[in-house]
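Q: How would the structure tokens look for this protein?
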Amino acid sequence: MDPDEASGTAAESAASGWYSQAARRLEASNALDITSRNIMSLVTDALAVVYVGANATQIGLLNAAGTVAFLVLGAPIGVWIDRADARKAMVLATFSRSAVCLLLAFAIARGHTSFYLLAIVSLLIGISGTVAETGQTVHATQVVEKSSISLLISRLSAVDKVLRLAVPAATGLALGLMGAPWLMVFAALISLSAGIVLLNRGNGNVVSNHSEMPKEKRGKGKSRF
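A: Here is the predicted structure in token form.
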């Protein structure tokens, strides 16, 4: 093997290793992100029934507030993330959700819970979730080879489906043991962890922005909703 070939092989191996590390971070962040969002959504619904005495129509409005972000803002958010730094967008979304969790926990502890407050929280959860989901899909195209993009996105979707089934049961039990304020603090810590996981770039950055991304990888980001 000549020196140039050896150098190329070494560089390729290093890049592959970084790709693997970045993909694992994305998967870990995705699992933490969907867990925090599920906890927040379920606690918000429980608060609406127990603290506010919401009826079926109001619960439906809360759920609608959580999905309206995707329906109304999904396209603009997708365009923004596709042009910006998807990793930074996800970090911003998770950190913002942590702040919302803590503010809601404080409001609950102070007895200031209202239906309008819960509706705003549901809307913010929906917005942060849309940013996170879209960012994850776009970022997936930046951390693995083109041939592995579909596999990585499938793995992210599979984890989402499993956690959407497992988290509600655990949240119901935790709500009875911890109470709503502390459970929201717990959700804030999980959301914060989802962002912190993404802060470490590893040994380098294969694709730092869209201007450096190969043409065939541009515009591949699509929400998994």
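Confidence is low (pLDDT under 50) at residues 3-18, 203-225.

The radius of gyration is 20 Å.

Upvote if useful.
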